[in-house]
Structures
1.
Amino acid sequence: MTAVSGRWRLGLLLALSTAIMWGVLPIALTGVMVTLDPMTTTFFRLSLAAVVLTPILLVRKRLPNLPKLRSPRLFLQLLAAGLLLSANYGLYISGLERTSPEASQVMIQLAPMLLLLAGIFLFKESFSPAQWIGFFAFASGLALFFNHHLSDIFVSLNDYGIGLLMLCLAALCWTGYAVLQKILLQEFSSEETMLAIYWLGTLVFLPFCDFSTIGQLSGLQWGLLAFCGLNTLIAYGAFAEALVHIEASRVSATIALTPLLTVSIVQFVPIAGITAEPLQFLSIVGAIMVVCGSMTTAIAKKR
């Protein structure tokens, strides 16, 4: 394993930058969806990321190694990873449209937790007792945060409940993508796979786009749309660079703060077009437990 540089202040700043970028993303997406539908918004998000990343990798001579894709196994794995991540993007933004930025950001924390569980069953990894405590704190926190919406799923399935289920499916799709990405990294760099996946996602969402409302976007919304497209590239770059300076567990623990950032911004900063989720005391406790559970699971040592 490559040793970290030890520049913990820089590493912490980069990890916090990633958390902030991901924390404001659902807010920006909600602002764009006042005018654009979710599928068109996602198309622009993926296509902009692809258009920006392609010349960067071209200059650095790090474009995908196309001859490797002649292998049916690698081609199908990359295709499956791209379709799963595209499904994650589509389900996430559709769930966001039906719920709220706070709810979507808390629920999507299922994704890294499911990946940790997948590591136990697929890669024969293990959890320490402290990590299991963190996991159960996380699960309990989810139940508390959504305590006043449980009937929306289990009693009378309404639009909000459907949104929560979409977010759960989005987390599951991301987990499948991440497992395949871990396998693909044995043959491709992360930049190669992401470029291929961005272009694939662009093609996937193109048939579902409605470009008739593009002319109605305000200058602010164009800026938000550009931010959404660049968000993944910038946040990922900061995340990768943070790993150079501090341990992965500390980076993960810092990024686990993302839901609290989203909740705090929406609850305390008035934003036109966004209605804050009515949070009860138990919901606030639940959000804190989700974050603490995620941090504990990330930091606690494995057996």
2.
Amino acid sequence: MRRVWRIAAEELRLLARTRVAWLGLLALIILSAVAAATSAAHVGREQAIRAEQQAAADHAFEAQPDRHPHRVVHYGAYVHRPVSPLAAFEPGVDPFTGTTLFLEGHRQNSATFGAMRESSGLIRFGQLTPAFVLQALAPLLLIFLGFSVVARERATGVLRQLRVHGARPGEVLLGKSLALGAVAAVALAPALAALVIAASSAPGEATAGALIAAAFMIYLAIWVLMVVAVSALAGSSRGALLGLIALWAVVVVLTPRAASALAAQAEPAPPRVETDLRITREARTIGDSHNPDDPFFAAFRARTLAEYGVSRIEDLPVNYRGLVSAEGEALTSRLFADYARRTADQQRAQSRWLAAGAIFSPALAVRKAAMAGAATDLENHVRFLEQAEAHRFDLVQRLNRLHAEDVRPEDDAARSSDSEAEQRTRVAAENWAGMPDFSFTPATPQARVASMIPGLGVLALWLAAAVGLLVLASRRLMGESR
């Protein structure tokens, strides 16, 4: 093992004397530090803005004057998705999904104000993150610094001299790998520091942060082993460089985009407008509360009268219009939930195509694991939508109960033609302050760790394949030395 360390030390001394190595490593460190600083500032600013906007929306809802409850149903409320602390390291799907939902009766709106939709395509370059630097740029640095670590020694005859002095090919490759791994560790340091700072900013993030760090360590280890192995297998330094750049382009650039395009083709998603039209069309077939001959609401009226033991709507102790509003909201909400499940299932199917692409690209595997750990994956967004919908339904039904219990039926019927009756249909403003505020509950750290396992498993397979490639290269060198 001493010989392995000596080979590694000699390789590091050679790199230290190379100006290109210093400049490349320094550029990556600076870029990683800038990405960490700007990303942390962006997330901190977003957290403050959304908290401020949520407080302003809650205040505006509670500050409404005395009103008819159904007017408040249509006044609606805004909810904002909180930012995950680890989004400063890996923003995941957050820039592509909306951050704000408008909640109102009879409708389920889409999330809006996604960064990618609200800005130009240049934001892809403006939102540089530590995860992107490690995923896409760090492998390039390792390629340019390591493509000739073995090919150079073969061309100059150093490999034969090492063999004469008793160094086995496996020891040579291991020493070269340790040297290049040290470079990878230095390149990794700024991003890991940013990850530690982000994880320490909130309780319960340490385990997920540690696993994200482990995922990127494995990812860079895969590249270190592949660079050394290709350098050993290639016939020349130029061939090694061209082969590694082609490998990087396929793994980091082409495969993720091809997997995304394939997912969109295999599981095409209909436009939101088309979905809204389908929901509206199906809602009309459920029942029309304004039609006295509608079969569903005629049956509902009969059940309601039987429940209260009366024979006429006028004899009910509550406002029948409020009961109809509550029943109609329950019907449409079930329809909304059904379509939301279909959409989520379709998006999950697309995500599975991307996960399958990780077999051909460790970049996809490490991103999947990082997004799951950082709570910036698709499941976190779906969780926000589901909780927001549950809050919307609860809020609207509370208002419908106020309509049924606090508004007299005769005033409700006459409010369009009688100003005094209209005034009596307004309930006290203090009721709005009694409505619960929206509070998003993220997935537990344990659930997030469990969701990281598939991505980590694929990375482990890639690491095993890289080790196998290095063993193959060692055997080839052994054959050359005979």
3.
Amino acid sequence: MRNYFLLDSKVTARADAALNNEMVKKLWGSFSLSCSALEFTEGQPFTFVVGKIALPTLEADKEYALCVEENGAAVVGKDYGGLMRGFASLVMKMEFDGEVCKIKTVTEQSSYNMKNRMLHICVFPDNTLYEIKKIIRLAGLCQYTHIIIEFWGTLQYDCMKELAWPNHSFTKDEARELIREARELGMEPIPMFNQLGHATASRVCHGKHVVLEQNPRLQPLFTPDGWAWNIHSSKVYELMKQVRTELYELFGEGEYMHIGCDEAYYYTHCEEERASLPDFLKRLTDDVVSEGRRPMIWMDMLLERKKYPNCTATCVPEEVEILQGALNPATVMVDWQYRIKEAPVPTLLSLKDSGHDAMGAPWYEPGNYSAYVDTIVDNDMFGIMMTTWHTLKEKMESILGCAKKCGTVTFPWSNGRNREETAAMLRRISFEGNDYESSGWTRKDIVDHFMK
């Protein structure tokens, strides 16, 4: 038996009209090594069919079903996102034998172990637009459901020009390219703007401040150290509202708004100032909900200090219930703890009965993201938000590693070597072509090691 579906140089798909986009066509062409081009005629919603094959049956709890026979290939999704994740799995099954591109016969149902699989990425002044596009495309191949995009002084806002570094930031039209690609890949893009700590839009270890370096007279918007926003300022409230409004318009329809609120050191070390945090958090989260979004918030400022070994938490015991109780009930609690490498993660587990949806946010260490996935699955929690921060260029394979731990299926030849597999994925999604500096995940072969 042949056991393969052979691809012609031109293939016509009967598919959901939304699937007829440039991203899908480029993925097909790239993974087929330009041996096959994809054309479309309109088919049934949330389906993709090439050749002569019946649609596979989609089970109620699955995101997609996939089938390849000698005469064709088909994918059914529960929605557009599920369809795209099935399509991603399909193209990764393509093989080239030196003469023809083909796909081995197979039947497959999605096997994700949680519904919400999110990736958080930072856009730094050092990033190029192409680098961020490749990260978003990689996230799509890894079948994340959402991608949180946080611009670190790199988005040009209308409400305050000093929120972006001149000559090191993106226009809204450029940002829309990123958002469009995320949606075409079946992910919901989530806007993020940190509305308490990290007000410098730069890492604290480098001492930069996107606003005050350009206009020191704006100091009243911040705490005296400049690191956090001044929660007593009415101008800050208005500015935050304007920023959110611009982000909603830019990102389009969506369910969430990540408001950050972590590592506000000035408030952490001042009891008098901390007394104002409950009112601030209530007003902020209520405002976001009134705007039609669910706020997402980092939890380090709302967890009891010293209670959890090896965890980051800053609350004194008597403040925990007050601060957590101030959050609007729709708020999603996001727990990040990067030193924990065994399940269950105690801080995340403490949020299980909080009345809020709670999700874990690990970093690049396999032990760390494995502990979070196991805790989430064992306790049927809301989902995961993989974080990347400044180590992304050195640890990009963690995006794939965490996705696999969540049940993502990738290349049939996958052997657990996430770094090499990530490199193979990047080659397939580099549609624009890569020279020495734009290929892989670093611009040079010899670079300073990421900061530990």
